[in-house]
Here is the input.
Amino acid sequence: MPETEAVIRGITRSWIPRSASVDGTLVDRVLAARGINSGASAEVFLNPSLAELHDPSLIPDLDRAAERILSAIRAGERVTIYGDYDVDGVTATAILYHLIHAIEPSCNLSTYIPHRVDEGYGLNTDAIRAIADEGSRVVVSVDCGITGVEPALVAKELGVDLIITDHHNPPDQLDAMPDAFAVVHPRRPDSSYPFGELCGAGVAYKLAWRLATLHAGSEKVSPPIRAVLLDLLALAALGTIADIVPLVNENRVIVRHGLRRIRSVRIEGIHALIRASGLDSDSVDTEAVGFRLAPRLNAVGRIGHAREALELLTTATGNHARDLAERLTHLNEDRRAQEYKILTQAIEMAESSGMTGDRDRAIVLAHDDWHPGIVGIVCSRLVDRFARPTILMCRGDGVCKGSGRSIDGFNLHAALEACDEHLESFGGHDMAAGMRCRDDAFDSFREGFLTHARASLTPEDLVRSTSYDTNARVHELSAHAIGQLDRLAPFGAGNPPVRVRLTNLRLNGSPEQFGKAGNHLSLRVSDASDRGAVIRLIGWNWWQHSGSIPAGSLLEAIVEPRVSRWNRNTRIEPVLVDARVVIPGGDSDYSVVEGVDAKRSALN
Here is the structure.
């Protein structure tokens, strides 16, 4: 292999097309790559309607839960909403809070969110006892509870009607579910609900919807309640994006309509959060939620207490809402600094222990000084970097508590089940989970998990790959075509941003660095066969590759089509995802860069 090829070889080894279609317009080919072929199905996908939301009553136990909550409200019984400390849990709690107050402004309603470090994830018996002592006769969990067998028994003993609403992996058998008054879950073993990928906020929204119709006595609710339900779509959208559930079916509807309303909702804290995130003049799309709004809401739950995020989304107004939003911003900056420190340590430990090679196909580490609220984010970074399941745990007081993230094709929850003899508790789903073990059991757990990973994964499973929708030529990237592609939004899990592979490119001149620190790269390219229009490809944080792409090179690139509008000028400026120099007659199966996005989400 020529020396220049070795220099520019990156981690990405394969580019995977979602479709081999070559027919139709660019948008037709992209839709076909995503399994949307007919005109009718394309119309439904491109124009998601609220009418496509499924009947909430189809979720098992949802009507029973709604009837009990409504009777408690009418009787003046104390009701407590018990949420989780992440964005999904906080928004789910806020959804029920706002809807119940809309039904009965003087209701006897309280909220409870456990402290991430002191109490850990999910329902806990001490909290249930304390809530019962305060007089609550109904407790409604949101985004947690499906594994809360013991807390459910305690609630029953205390005469508390526990209503569980959750979306995390349920038990395989009905008799293994918690013995609660109601268990509302779209994927219960006995469920026939048409869509099983709602997040916690999505399930809470369905419960709120049913509370509204039961209160009205018909499917048509009063205009004030309808206005509240429409506002709450914005909260459901925040939770749906932040929890990285697939943005298809109902989730796509919720996010599309929720983001459209987010600037007009009558929740002052949302507007304060948007201003504190620097989004006053920018659109609030899934990227803005993922990289600006959600990290701020999450940060307080990681290194403070999530009740402040809940206050921002419920009762905070005026200057107090502004101050809370600014505090969340400062906490997010602190979180980022701690995250960088942990990431640096974890990379060194993983590499020195050999967990980044072919033998150990997972990373399992523990450290005394890591913050338990931040290790989950660092897990995501390590998965991105090393393409293997990762678990990071924090040692303290004789126990190890941590989080894990996975890769496609490796069921993290099932892997923890295979090692449960070493764990005191765990919960989550296929791609993310939390766990706890005794300090003296950590080594056994690590070896058990690594053994399971070696048996379940091959070295080929750990090879980085980048997917794209279809091949395209430069002349196809018009402003009109990109506008049509933008209709596929909202983008996220299950509906990723459109990526196309541009072939037969000629680099005009040399790569150009730009930005205050010169850390971005600009490639001016044209079609090599006709030397037609020149477009500018933008490589965010690609500066280190400027010397690896010779002037005048023939290139192939995977890009996200974008239109830049600056100073009233409209320019086609696709964003680089990955690229490779083509050596005529030689091996071109290598990449300039890793094939990872310059921006990272700090959600989990």
